[in-house]
UniProtKB/TrEMBL annotation:
<feature type="domain" description="ABC transmembrane type-1">
    <location>
        <begin position="93"/>
        <end position="306"/>
    </location>
</feature>
<feature type="transmembrane region" description="Helical">
    <location>
        <begin position="131"/>
        <end position="153"/>
    </location>
</feature>
<feature type="transmembrane region" description="Helical">
    <location>
        <begin position="285"/>
        <end position="307"/>
    </location>
</feature>
<feature type="transmembrane region" description="Helical">
    <location>
        <begin position="96"/>
        <end position="119"/>
    </location>
</feature>
<keyword id="KW-1003">Cell membrane</keyword>
<dbReference type="InterPro" id="IPR000515">
    <property type="entry name" value="MetI-like"/>
</dbReference>
<protein>
    <submittedName>
        <fullName>Sugar ABC transporter permease</fullName>
    </submittedName>
</protein>
<feature type="region of interest" description="Disordered">
    <location>
        <begin position="1"/>
        <end position="20"/>
    </location>
</feature>
<feature type="transmembrane region" description="Helical">
    <location>
        <begin position="27"/>
        <end position="52"/>
    </location>
</feature>
<feature type="transmembrane region" description="Helical">
    <location>
        <begin position="232"/>
        <end position="253"/>
    </location>
</feature>
<keyword id="KW-0472">Membrane</keyword>
<comment type="similarity">
    <text>Belongs to the binding-protein-dependent transport system permease family.</text>
</comment>
<keyword id="KW-1133">Transmembrane helix</keyword>
<feature type="transmembrane region" description="Helical">
    <location>
        <begin position="173"/>
        <end position="194"/>
    </location>
</feature>
<keyword id="KW-0813">Transport</keyword>
<feature type="compositionally biased region" description="Low complexity">
    <location>
        <begin position="1"/>
        <end position="11"/>
    </location>
</feature>
<dbReference type="InterPro" id="IPR050809">
    <property type="entry name" value="UgpAE/MalFG_permease"/>
</dbReference>
């Protein structure tokens, strides 16, 4: 009796010896995105890492201008201690927190109201008014500040001169107690239209069937706004608020230019202006780097806290 023999299949030499090449469809996206990744790396990630590294570095210069040598050592948190010991820098952060608490809600409310009005069924020439409200955002911040300064400076401002001549009122837009809100007025004028367009884009994504069903149930414009539009544009409101919180701590051009006509604005009026002064007026780049990291940290904490709060309230 013969025993059955079993045969084993030979390995596929061609399949095991040749490495498969990636398909063009898998490689093409990486080729297309590589320029952006490189630009993002060298213009965003790398500067952040360099600033973070400098914030932990202590630079010692020998000689008046460092001509006898420059040595760098690891400073641990010494630069952060010096930054936090600067009372003017801490005051500038507190000033911007007050600025944001007042200015951001006003701006977001105005942007929301304008968006709802322009997207209402009774709105006339909505395209024209959208462009008109958005136009201030197209004006550079430097020019916007110069334009508004003509309305703030006594002797040039028709508002100040008219109030004094006709009503006997002394209006000082650039005083110590008012200049912060004069800056807030410029920022609100500039960015309300920008935030309005973001909200309008969210409004246009609402299905028309929801409006039709609500009108069948007898809902008026106010009921549509509060029951359908405002709840559904919540992501846009959160996004614009977070952007505004971050932008509040980044104020720089407006106070720097108004400082030429407003003695109440010093060289450390805002956090960014304080870091700029520390770096380029005092040549203390490591402490300025620590200040920049602290500004970014405060912006992150405020944005994160706001997102957590909105997520909790939505539940």
């Amino acid at each position: 009796m013969s025993t059955p023999t079993t045969t084993t299949a030979a390995p596929d030499v061609a399949r095991s010896g040749v490495r498969r090449r990636p398909s063009p469809t898998a490689v093409a996206p990486w080729i297309l995105v590589t320029p952006f990744l490189l630009l993002f790396l060298f213009t965003f990630v790398l500067p952040i890492l360099m600033a973070l590294g400098q914030s932990f570095t202590l630079v010692e210069r020998e000689g008046l201008f460092g001509e006898e040598g420059v040595t760098s050592t690891f400073a641990w948190f010494e630069n952060y201690r010096l930054a936090l010991a600067d009372g003017q820098f801490i005051a500038s952060i507190g000033r911007m927190l007050l600025f944001g608490v007042v200015q951001v809600p006003i701006m977001i409310t105005l942007a929301t109201v304008l968006a709802l009005l322009l997207e209402s069924a009774s709105a006339r020439w909505p395209g024209f008014f959208r462009a008109a409200y958005f136009m201030p955002y197209g004006v550079p911040g430097v020019l916007a500040t110069i334009l508004w300064s003509f309305l703030y400076v006594p002797g040039l401002s028709p508002i100040v001169d008219t109030a004094h001549a006709w009503f006997g009122l002394e209006i000082d837009f650039l005083g110590a107690g008012t200049v912060l809100w004069s800056i807030a007025n410029i920022v609100t004028w500039t960015y309300t239209g920008y935030n309005m367009l973001i909200i309008i884009a969210q409004l246009k994504a609402i299905p028309p069937e929801l409006y039709e069903a609500a009108r069948v149930d007898g809902a008026g414009p106010a009921r549509l706004a509060f029951s359908i539009q405002l709840p559904l544009i919540r992501p846009a409101l959160v996004l614009t608020t977070v952007f505004s919180i971050i932008g509040t701590l980044q104020l720089f051009a407006e106070p720097q230019l108004l400082a030429q006509v407003a003695p109440a604005i010093d060289s450390q009026y805002t956090p960014n202006l304080s870091a700029y002064t520390t770096a380029f007026a005092y040549n203390d780049y490591t402490v300025a780097a620590a200040q920049a990291v602290l500004i970014a940290l405060v912006a992150f904490v405020l944005s994160f806290a706001f997102l957590r709060l909105t997520n909790r309230t939505s539940r």
